[in-house]
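Schema walk-through. Below, the input block comes first and the output block second. Nothing else is stored per chain. Lengths vary across the set, and this one has 119 residues.
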Amino acid sequence: MARNNVRTIALDKVLLGDNRRFASASPVPQIGAAKMMVIIVLLAGLVFTGLLFTWSHLQYLELSSQISQTYNDQKELHNLNRKLRIELMNLKSLARLESLATENFSMAPPESHQVVNLR
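--- output ---
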C-alpha cells in the first residue's frame, strides 16, 4: 500500500508543477492593459484603413465603368445624329420634292403668266 501512495505523490508533483524538469526556462511575458489598448486601437485603425481603401477602389471602378458606358452612349448618339442629318438632307432634296409634286399631287412647273415678281 505504501508503494501505491508514493506514485500518487509523484503524480501530484507533476500535475502541480513542482517538478522543475518541466518548468519553462523563462516566464511568459505579460502585456499591460495600456499596451493592449494601444495594440487594439492600432489594429482597428489598420482594419478601418483597409476598408476605406477597398471602398474607394470600388468607387473608382464603378465610376470608370459609368464613364465608359457614357462614352459609348455618346458615340451611338453621334452616329444617330449623323444618320438623321443625312436623312433630313435626302428628304429636303429638290429632286425628291419635284418628283413628289408631279407624281402624287399632279403639279407641273408654273407657266409664265402664273409667275408674280415681287420688287
